[in-house]
Amino acid sequence: MCKIPFKIILVSFFLISSIVFTVYIKEVSADNLLEEQAITYFNKAKELERKGDVEGAIEFYQKSILLDKSNIDIYNQLGVLYEKKGLPERAEAMYLKAISKNPLCLPAHNNLAYLYESQGEINKAVTHWRIRIALADSDDKWVDEVRKKLSKYDTSIVDLEKSIKASKEKTVATDLLDKVEESNQHVLEGRIYLQQKDFQSALTEFEKAYKLNPSSEIGNYIRKTEGFLKARDYIKKGEKFYINNNYEQAMYNFNQAQSLLPENSILTELTKRVKFELYLNKANELFNQEQYEEALGIVNKAVDLEPDNSLANSLKNKIEEILIVQ
């Protein structure tokens, strides 16, 4: 029996890299669709909130945050709605979440301060009102109101913005904001490189962004890009081993690539196909060497992977006929 033409099998290997990375670009596009859907949910939640539908607004904010956890406004708005429902602990958790993701989220500082005041935790409230004033812009309409609150609970505060401490805090906040903006620019450039399939340059941009703003979202970009770079290396090694007929090492490298991209259905199918071809070629070799029992064991593995494959079933039938005669 003739072997499967080597060139046909080899071509499939050279197509793997381009297909896998095409899938990655599709995943990036899918991410964009998720972001758009998140915005749709967010706008729906805002509409329901304006109409006084607290339950409905919470539902759509939660749907939005599942798709895009980077929208800090959602955490703050959920805090407001939970307060309206009489759930102060949940409200506090949402405000703190917003602040942890962005220390410059002034509405969350303000809302958290009022929540603490309502619970009699004045020291905590004063802390967040101090931050609210220190980070405020000159035309911030809330400054006068917050200053009145601080004057009520802390008579030592006359004009916090002019104090040395406030000046330092504001400088730190400005520096932080600059870093966040610079980080966002690197993320944007990194995503452009992803669209261009320049993964190494994308990784460089994401790493620069992470140094400026070590957020979980940027960390996810880094891990995802690193995974594809490693997967590409394993695929290239697998191709070389296959060309040299080192099937065991070829499969090892493809399995390593698949472990890095477990949800990549195309890579999973390609790995399965390669494994089938390797089993079938090995079974052919054993058949030509008249090692029929060993050949039957290997070809059965090929048939298990592709039950309807005519080449595998034909080889299996011939081997079984020979073994019956023997």
What can you tell me about this protein's structure?
- The protein is an all-alpha fold.
- It has a domain at 231-325: Tetratricopeptide repeat domain (Serine Threonine Protein Phosphatase 5, Tetratricopeptide repeat, Alpha Horseshoe), CATH 1.25.40.
- Helix content is 81%, strand content 0%.
- It contains 14 helices and no strands.
- The chain has helices at residues 6-50, 54-67, 72-84, 88-101, 106-118, 122-134, 143-153, 164-195, 199-212, 216-243, 247-260, 265-288, 292-305, 310-325.
- Helix 9 runs antiparallel to helix 10 (216-243).
- The protein starts with 5 loop residues before the first helix and ends with a helix.
- Residues 1-17, 19-30 and 155-162 have low confidence and may be disordered.
Task: Kindly list the characteristics that best describe this protein.
single chain, 326 residues, mainly alpha, Serine Threonine Protein Phosphatase 5, Tetratricopeptide repeat, 14 helices
